[in-house]
Amino acid sequence: MSHHLVEFKDVFFRYPDGTEALKGISFRITHGESVGIVGANGAGKSTLLLHLNGCLLPVSGTVTIGDLALTVKSRREIRKKVGVLFQNPDDQLFMPTVFDDVAFGPINLGLEEAQVRERVQKALTLVNGLPLVEKPPHHLSAGQKSAVAIAAVMAMEPDILAMDEPAATLDPKSRRLLIELLKGFTHSKLVASHDLDLILDVCRRCIVIGDGRVVADGPASEILSDARLLEANNLELPLSLQRR
User: Fold this and answer.
1) Which of 47, 128, 186, 191 has a Cα at 20 to 30 A from 89?
2) β-bridge pairing 68-69 and 20-29
């Protein structure tokens, strides 16, 4: 299914201050793949994810989503295919109530009111957030904000899911709920996280990013059990493997 394809070809990106965040990134993700993106702070993980729906555009190289090359003109259509969860939920929640935030995407897809309400209820149920539906987002805890931001992405019913540190502020129960949600998402997904146990749980493939480049790309079980590789990239073995 070509509409679930993600491909980066020799992608470079430089911020206005001159910081080179991506330095020739290349990889290809096909339908149904679950891919973890790991690396030290500043390695380029968040920058990479922000290219998936056109929040950022390459300085050079190409990003292809489905059968569309990412450009200023194509990114509106690409955003219908890709759901991106930002690292900070406050960057994603801006409406008066939780309902409004989760409904924002479906409304912009042109859905009827009944369909919008159905999407909101379904998405909030997925994250155990239905009791929050009428609350103002700025009154929520950090974990609740994360749950609502996840619901807002899921309400779009994206072909491709990209999440940046999705479990960072979640309590253990909510984290487990997220893991089950990700396991149940059968389309292509990319998850960037320092929570390597979460990556090990939900991703079959893992890409290590270091200094804006792909350092390693392979089965998650092999990548995340390679202590030397992880140490060289300022990472540690997942806790579940340290106990062995």
Assistant:
1) 186
2) unpaired
- Closest to 195 in 3D by CA, of 211, 184, 209, 179: 179
Number of domains in the chain: 1
* Domain of residue 94, CATH code: 3.40.50.300
| Pair 93, 147: CB distance under 8 Å | no
Domain that holds residue 88: 2-242
SS3 label, residue 133? coil
Q: Which pTM does this prediction carry?
A: 0.91
Cβ 128 vs Cβ 177: under 8 Å: yes
β 20-29/6-14 pair status: antiparallel
